[in-house]
Specification:
The two termini are about 20 Å apart. This protein has one domain: 50s Ribosomal Protein L5, Chain: A (2-Layer Sandwich). With about 160 residues, it is of the alpha+beta class. α3 packs antiparallel against α5. β2 and β3 form a beta hairpin. Helices cover about 35% and strands about 25% of the residues. It contains 5 helices and 5 strands, in the order βαββααβαβα. Strands 2-3-1-5-4 form a 5-stranded antiparallel beta sheet.
């Protein structure tokens, strides 16, 4: 089953942080090698508050088989309470374009590879463009529910 047209992961590395561990943590989200699978790792710099530089790491997956591997890997790492929270908040996490957004705490992933949902900006941002056909909100929400409850994604 096709759940999404694309999945995009982004993280910021602030000037005072060592970007190497952040990049390694970013790459650990993917159960495959980005370069070998022709997924571009984008790295750009932007000016943040007080003219401090921010490095932005971003990867967008568009190939269906890679999206499935990525999502399966992601949801295997979430505990039941995190999955339930996503389901409870699904309506507010889905925008008008049927893009579904999740944020995972950066410190928790960096220091223990634990996925913990957060509302803070110091996080890994995930955008999932839901493959709803026809393009309707209720179908996208059903896809999210199916994705999270899929037995293939719940093996721990």
């Amino acid at each position: 089953m096709k759940y999404a047209h694309l999945a995009r992961l982004t993280v910021f590395s602030y000037e005072h942080e060592d970007s190497e561990p952040i990049l390694n943590a970013f790459l650990d989200f993917f159960p495959f090698n980005l370069e070998e699978n022709k997924v571009e790792l984008k790295k750009r710099t932007a000016a943040g508050f007080n003219e401090k530089n921010i490095t932005i790491f971003e990867a967008t997956i568009e190939k269906n088989s890679l999206i499935s591997k990525f999502l399966e890997n992601l949801f295997k790492k979430l505990d039941e309470s995190q999955k339930n929270m996503i389901l409870e908040q699904a309506e507010s996490r889905l925008d008008a374009n049927l893009d579904f957004f999740l944020r995972f705490g950066k410190d928790e992933w960096l220091n223990g590879r634990k996925l913990l949902l957060t509302d803070s900006g110091n996080c890994f941002h995930l955008k999932i463009s839901m493959a709803a056909f026809p393009k309707k909100r209720e179908i996208a929400l059903n896809l999210v529910s199916n994705l999270i409850s899929n037995k293939n994604f719940n093996k721990n």
